[in-house]
Specification:
With 478 residues, the protein is mostly helical. Helix content is 81%, strand content 0%. Helix 10 packs antiparallel against helix 11, helix 12 packs parallel to helix 17 and helix 16 packs antiparallel against helix 17. The termini are close together.
């Protein structure tokens, strides 16, 4: 295929950015609509948790699967299918007559979303072959991701105030249709030279692990930890984890290559991603309920109150990139951990019905700084020392870990708040987010030193020694 012109490359990048815009914006915008959903559907905290977590759970479960599938059958084909499913499911969400229907439509929406982000990354890296141009393109893509996450609460608040919570899903339709049109016109078909095999057993075990664990956490305040259903779901989750640990090492191309975890740097990046995004999404979930139901803020005012989070994210993300490039991942991870801790401790100590707004905004700004500092070192540390052929898979595991953290953060924060009926439970949840920040700090210190780098180097060398020889697919072109 002849090289793309600069104009066409920019159009392909814009198409991929539109996809990440609607996937990220949708979830953060919905947090502001949670009180409206509770009022319309007369549901409790667990119903709100499932509305958010049905989406993040499916994303976390299928992200790697659809990335591998796109490498095999065609990235453009999977990308277009994902856009169509996401747009159709968004319409279904806006028409949902009950909470159960909304959760079902959110699940379908996440299936479409899982086809978009990993495939968009592959399309971008395949289109921008020059290292400098690729870095700039990924920088634009990451900036759109950060802006959409942070602008979500403001846009969601405005939509809820003007037209109700259903308007949040209407936004996805014209953006998704525009992305579909651009994909049909400008995005070429491509496949991986050596696509990874699909691992259906590993996929089923991951789904079972996350679904059972999330169910046990979310439903525990209503049913109690001693309830047979809760105990059974947690036991099922543990059994699925044991099954993964036993089954995956036996496959030539497993869904999750456990050899990666011999690298302390990779293991640290994975755990940090879970902790950081658990803190962020637990915060977003609780903060919407706190501002609107405890403080009486309107949806728009609640969204505007999170602007310090967005501003600090935009300010610190470029700084984190420069620090990671020049000094390594340790310094930005320490800054991220301290920022999450400061925000969590401040809100745990002062958040109440009459807390002065400047104190709350300071806490939100601290959270935003943590988000800005943490993203780049997670991605950088995850692939540090990995063989080039496996760097994409390692990055996909790190991305999946972010969604796992998002899912668990909402589950745990809502369970803590629900178990105490708000009040002290919300305080406990703020302390938990501070604990996640402490985990980012400590793990970042341990897994970014010389010892961790040596384990990454040894892990890469062992991987190369046992890497399977390329098959016929490796000799096939695009």
């Amino acid at each position: 295929m002849p090289p793309h012109t600069p104009h066409r490359r920019r159009l392909i990048l814009a198409t991929c950015c539109l996809s990440v815009l609607i996937v990220s914006l949708d979830n953060t915008a919905l947090n502001v609509a949670l009180p409206a959903l509770r009022s319309d559907f007369r549901t409790g905290v667990s119903g709100l948790q499932w509305t958010v977590d049905a989406y993040t759970l499916v994303l976390a479960t299928f992200l790697m699967f659809f990335g591998s599938l796109a490498d095999r059958i065609g990235r453009r084909r999977v990308f277009r299918t994902g856009l169509a499913v996401f747009v159709a499911a968004s319409l279904l969400c806006s028409l949902a007559p009950t909470l159960d229907w909304l959760i079902a439509a959110r699940t379908l929406q996440a299936v479409g979303g899982a086809m978009l982000n990993p495939v968009a990354m592959s399309i971008i890296t395949g289109t921008f072959t020059d290292p400098r141009g690729r870095a700039r393109a990924l920088g634009v893509w990451s900036a759109v991701l950060g802006v959409s996450m942070c602008a979500g609460p403001v846009i969601g608040g405005l939509a809820v105030e003007v037209a109700g919570w259903r308007a949040i899903f209407w936004i996805n339709v014209p953006v998704g249709l525009a992305a579909l049109t651009l994909t049909a016109l400008f995005v070429p078909e491509s496949r991986a030279p050596r696509p990874r095999r699909v691992d259906p057993v590993g996929q089923a075990l991951v789904m079972l692990l996350l679904a059972a664990l999330t169910f046990g956490i979310i439903e525990s305040p209503d049913l109690g930890w001693s309830d047979p259903l809760i105990a059974g779901s947690l036991a099922l989750s543990a059994g699925a984890l044991a099954g993964l640990l036993c089954y995956e090492p036996r496959r030539v191309e497993p869904l999750i290559d456990l050899r990666f975890f011999r690298s302390a740097a990779f293991s640290g990046a994975t755990v940090i991603a879970v902790a950081a995004f658990a803190a962020l999404n637990g915060f977003l979930f609780l903060n919407s309920l706190y501002l609107q139901e405890t403080r009486g803020f309107s949806p728009l005012a609640a969204g505007l109150a999170t602007l310090p989070l967005a501003a600090m994210t935009l300010l610190t993300a470029p700084l984190s990139g420069r620090l990671t490039g020049n000094r390594g991942a340790r310094l930005p991870l320490v800054a991220a951990g301290l920022s999450f801790m400061a925000g969590g401790v401040l809100l745990a100590l002062v958040a109440g019905r009459t807390t002065p707004l400047p104190l709350l905004l300071a806490g939100y700004g601290a959270f935003g700084a943590g988000v800005g500092f943490v993203n780049t070192p997670i991605s950088d540390t995850a692939v540090a020392g990995m063989p080039r052929a496996q760097a994409g898979v390692a990055a996909a595991v790190a991305s999946t870990s972010r969604h796992v953290g998002s899912c668990l953060g909402v589950a745990v924060a809502g369970a803590l708040a629900g178990s105490a009926g708000g009040g002290s439970g919300t305080g406990s949840a703020w302390w938990t987010t501070a604990g996640c920040g402490a985990a980012v700090l400590l793990i970042g210190l341990v897994t970014t030193g010389r010892w961790a780098r040596r384990t990454a180097t040894r892990s890469a060398e062992r991987y190369r020694e046992h890497e399977p020889a390329p098959g016929p697919a490796a000799r096939a072109g695009n």
